[in-house]
Amino acid sequence: MIYKTLGKSGLRVSELCLGTMTFGTEWGYGADKDEAQKQYHAFKDLGGNFIDTANLYTNGTSENFVGSFTQGHREEMVIATKYSLKTGGNGPNAAGNSRKSMMESVEGSLKRLKTDYIDLFYLHAWDFLTPIDEIMRGLDDLVRQGKVLYLGISDTPAWIVSRANTTAELMGWSRFIALQVEYSLIQRTPERELVPMANALGLSITPWAPLAGGALSGKYLNPETAEGRVVPDSVRRNERATNITKVVVQIAEEKQCTPSQVALRWLLQKPETTIPIVGARSAAQLSDSLQAYNIKLSATEIDRLNEVSAIELGFPYDFLAQERVRDILFNGYYQKIKK
C-alpha cells in the first residue's frame, strides 16, 4: 500500500482506511472481538495505518476494540474518531456540536481508545445550531492541549465547511484537513459542491460507503440477499444503481478481479486525494476489498464508469457549461485558453 499526506498537513496515511463501524455486535450485526482483530491485522499486515471509528459505533465497543488492538504499537497508527452523535449520556447536551458535547466526548474516546491523544478528530454531523466560532475555538483548544493532533469534518454542507476553515484561518486556529462524506459510483452528488470545495481548500476526502452498502459488490443484482431478505428500493437499489453495478461487474470480469475492487479503484484514481474507508463483517471480505490497491483501471474503463454513473450537476454548473454562455463569458476564446 502507498501513503498519502492528509490534506494540508505532513500526516502520512495509507491509501485505504479501515472502517470499524462493524467492530462489535451490539447493533445486531458485525464482528466479534476475534473476527475484528483478524480484520485489523489483515489491514496492518498490508501496510495500512489509518483507522476510522467514532464514539457512537457499537455503543463504544468499536473504540474499545481499536484501543486494545493498537496497544504496543500505538505510535505507528493514525486513529480517527468523531464526536457529535449521542454518547450514552442523558439530557440534550449528550449529543450535538457544542463545546460541552465536544469536550465530554473527547474524554470518553481517549479512555476507550486507551491513549492520551487522537490523531484525527472529526465533527461527525452538522447540527445547524452551534455557532461556527464556538466549534472552531473548541477544536483549536483540543489541539493546543495535545489531546487532538488534526481536525476533520463529516456530513456537513460545503458552505459551512468553507466558512469554518476561513474563520479558523483568520483567527489563527487549527483548520480541517479532511472531509468525510458518502461518496461512490452510486452516490456522486458530493461532486456538485463538496468535492470542488475540498479541492479548493486542500482537504483530503475520506469517502464512507464507497461500495454503497455492498450494492457495488453485485450482491443486489439478485432479487434477494444471501440472507433471503428482499432489499428495499432506495438510491442503492434502483434502475440507475443496477445499471452502474452491471458495468462494474463487467469490468471486474474483464480484469479478473472482484466488483468491490473495481468500485474502490475508481475512487483511488480520482484526481483529488481520496482515501476510501473500507469496512467489512469478516476478514475475508476485508481482504478482498483491500486488494483494490493491486489493480489499475484504464482511461477507457474510467470513462465507462463515469458515463454510466454520471449525474446532473444542476445550477449554476450546467448553466455555465453551456456553449453560448461560455462564448459570451470568454468572448469566444474558451477553447484557446489554457485552464
Describe the structure.
The protein is an alpha/beta fold and 339 residues long. It has a single domain, classed as TIM Barrel. It is 38% helix and 12% strand. The chain has twelve helices and ten strands. The chain has helices at 33-45, 61-69, 99-113, 132-145, 158-171, 194-201, 239-255, 259-268, 283-290, 299-309, 317-320, 323-329, and strands spanning 3-5, 12-14, 17-19, 50-52, 78-83, 118-123, 148-154, 176-180, 204-205, 277-278. An eight-stranded parallel sheet has the order 9-8-7-6-5-4-3-10. Strands 1-2 form a two-stranded antiparallel sheet. Strand 7 (148-154), helix 5 (158-171) and strand 8 (176-180) form a beta-alpha-beta unit. Helix 4 (132-145) crosses helix 5, helix 7 packs across helix 8 and helix 7 (239-255) packs antiparallel against helix 10. It is globular.
Q: What is the helical fraction, as a range of percent? A: 25-40%
State the CATH architecture. Answer: Alpha-Beta Barrel
Strand content: 5-15%
State the order of secondary-structure elements, H for helix, E for strand.
EEEHEHEHEHEHEHEHHEHHHH
Structural class: alpha/beta
- Give the overall shape: globular
- Unreliable residue stretches: none
Number of strands: 10
Count of discrete structural domains: 1
Distance between the termini: 32 Å
Radius of gyration: 21 Å
What is the CATH topology descriptor? TIM Barrel
Concise account of the structure shown:
Helix content is 38%, strand content 12%.
List the helices and strands and how they pair.
Elements: E1 3-5, E2 12-14, E3 17-19, H1 33-45, E4 50-52, H2 61-69, E5 78-83, H3 99-113, E6 118-123, H4 132-145, E7 148-154, H5 158-171, E8 176-180, H6 194-201, E9 204-205, H7 239-255, H8 259-268, E10 277-278, H9 283-290, H10 299-309, H11 317-320, H12 323-329
Parallel strand pairs: 3-4, 3-10, 4-5, 5-6, 6-7, 7-8, 8-9
Antiparallel strand pairs: 1-2
Helix pairs in contact: 1-9, 2-3, 4-5, 5-6, 7-8, 7-10
